[in-house]
């Protein structure tokens, strides 16, 4: 139980940067949808470009985050040497990427169908290279159990990005009208999408200064033998990482190409991406859990009760994922204001996207078995299968059913690989997951969800109060079955 409490504490701290941080970042969505109307397709451009950068980020990190944790936790390895080799590899790869992209910038921009804006591509090339390199110092902070600094850097970056976006998208337009001469020397009112990328570039460049203590005092000498072993271990992780991120972003990459009119595709993509943001509360929770869970898994691997802890971690992840689902869907009447009203037609995908995120989180919890057994090629197989399902369904169904088909394609893709990972994992590294208890929670959550959505209550506040009551029923069930108040710190002494 002590291990689970430690995992919960670290998840909470990482959640400060992931859940709170992303929530602050998502406050930009109302701004973007307000200044970039749905019909303009501007938000579709942002979503499309960021989809490519997410893919490249995985390519440049090369699976070295997981590789670093694996080798740094081996008793026969020098953790500092592992860290130095990780920095050298990812840093060198990122630098090579920037040089090549800048040399072929115009052909690359034309290939991505942004021939009039090579500046968009150039900025995001630099951003993704900086972020890739900084993934290793971030991993080092997690390894050293320094979640507070990790969270602080993440939050400062997000807050800075928000302030810059507010400056370029709100302050500058106001000054351009009322005090034109103060901003006319650098501000272009027609460059709104570009300023989103400018803000990101500035903060990615500034963030590296926070890592000076982690980058100094390191012996930057490449150990060829160690590097080869790390690459061999990390390469399959890279493959399934690439395919895994494709599972998340391939729809946003290909979406404009699935329509005869690319502009219409960007408009639809903007609506889909904006409304999907409402569902990403689940992604925030999953990410926070991932930051704490990966070092937890490798650190606990030697413990006698490790499998019992993995089982408990899966159960609690599933329970609180369902709670997050009920909360988001229950308060949709409020959360929909995260996007401008001309984007609301896409809110029908929120529940579907959240379902996909829950399944993806379960898959992540299952995935540790092939990492601990060093059979990471299984992850590559699963990711390829999932990508094939998602890509095929998008190409087949999106031209007819639009972005709803994209959302269901993600559910199908993650569902297939989750089942494969579970059944194969039970043969390779069996863990007794509490499936009956998890099924009970699933049924209860589904019943409460149907009641919340199908009970007609016209008055907004009465409807929200009713849904809050249903959520509290779920919380009460958690407390009764799996989280008794007696077990909580600062509460148990009241029962003595």
UniProtKB/TrEMBL annotation:
Transmembrane segments: 12-29, 49-71, 83-108, 120-141, 153-171, 191-212, 233-250, 270-293, 314-334, 346-366, 378-397, 403-425, 437-454, 460-479
InterPro entries: Poly_Biosynth_Transport (IPR050833), Polysacc_synth (IPR002797)
Membrane-topology descriptor: Multi-pass membrane protein
Subcellular location: Cell membrane
GO cellular component: plasma membrane
Pfam families the UniProt entry points to: Polysacc_synt
Protein keywords: Cell membrane, Membrane, Transmembrane, Transmembrane helix
Protein name: Lipopolysaccharide biosynthesis protein
């Amino acid at each position: 139980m002590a291990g689970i409490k430690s995992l919960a504490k670290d998840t909470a701290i990482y959640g400060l940067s992931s859940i709170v941080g992303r929530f602050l970042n998502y406050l930009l969505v109302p701004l973007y949808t307000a200044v970039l109307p749905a019909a303009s397709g501007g938000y579709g451009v942002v979503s499309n470009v960021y989809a490519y950068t997410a893919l490249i980020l995985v390519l440049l990190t090369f699976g070295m985050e997981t590789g670093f944790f694996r080798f740094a936790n081996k008793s026969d390895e020098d953790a500092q040497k592992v860290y130095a080799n990780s920095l050298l590899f990812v840093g060198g790869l990122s630098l090579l990427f920037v040089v090549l992209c800048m040399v072929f910038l115009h052909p690359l921009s034309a290939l991505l169908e942004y021939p009039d804006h090579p500046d968009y591509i150039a900025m995001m090339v630099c951003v993704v290279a900086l972020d890739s390199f900084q993934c290793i110092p971030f991993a080092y902070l997690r390894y050293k159990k320094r979640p507070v600094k990790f969270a602080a850097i993440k939050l400062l970056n997000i807050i800075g990005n928000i302030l810059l976006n507010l400056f370029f998208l709100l302050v500058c337009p106001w000054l351009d009208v009322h005090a034109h001469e103060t901003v006319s020397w650098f501000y272009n009112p027609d460059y709104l999408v570009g300023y989103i990328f400018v803000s990101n570039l500035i903060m990615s460049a500034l963030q590296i200064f926070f890592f000076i203590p982690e980058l100094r005092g390191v012996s930057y000498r490449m150990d060829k033998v160690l590097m080869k072993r790390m690459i061999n271990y990390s390469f399959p992780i890279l493959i399934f990482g690439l395919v895994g991120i494709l599972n998340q972003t391939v729809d946003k990459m290909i979406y404009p190409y699935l329509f005869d009119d690319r502009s219409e595709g960007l408009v639809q993509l903007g609506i889909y991406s904006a409304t999907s943001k409402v569902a990403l509360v689940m992604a925030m929770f999953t990410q926070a859990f991932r930051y704490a869970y990966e070092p937890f898994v490798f650190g606990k691997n030697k413990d006698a009760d490790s499998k019992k802890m993995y089982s408990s971690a899966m159960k609690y992840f599933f329970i609180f994922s369902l709670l997050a689902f009920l909360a988001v869907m229950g308060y949709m009447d409020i959360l929909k204001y995260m996007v401008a009203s001309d984007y609301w037609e896409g809110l029908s995908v929120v529940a579907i996207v959240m379902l996909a995120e829950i399944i993806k989180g379960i898959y992540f919890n299952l995935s540790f078995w092939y990492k601990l057994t060093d059979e990471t090629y299984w992850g590559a197989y699963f990711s390829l299968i999932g990508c094939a399902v998602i890509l095929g369904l998008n190409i087949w169904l999106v031209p007819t059913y639009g972005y709803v088909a994209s959302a269901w394609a993600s559910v199908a893709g993650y569902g297939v690989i989750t089942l494969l990972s579970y059944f194969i994992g039970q043969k390779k590294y069996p863990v007794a997951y509490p499936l009956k208890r998890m099924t009970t929670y699933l049924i209860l959550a589904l019943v409460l969800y149907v009641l919340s959505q199908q009970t007609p209550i016209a008055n907004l506040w009465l409807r929200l109060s009713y849904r809050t009551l249903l959520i509290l029923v779920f919380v009460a069930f958690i407390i009764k079955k799996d989280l008794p108040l007696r077990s909580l710190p600062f509460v148990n002494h009241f029962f003595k």
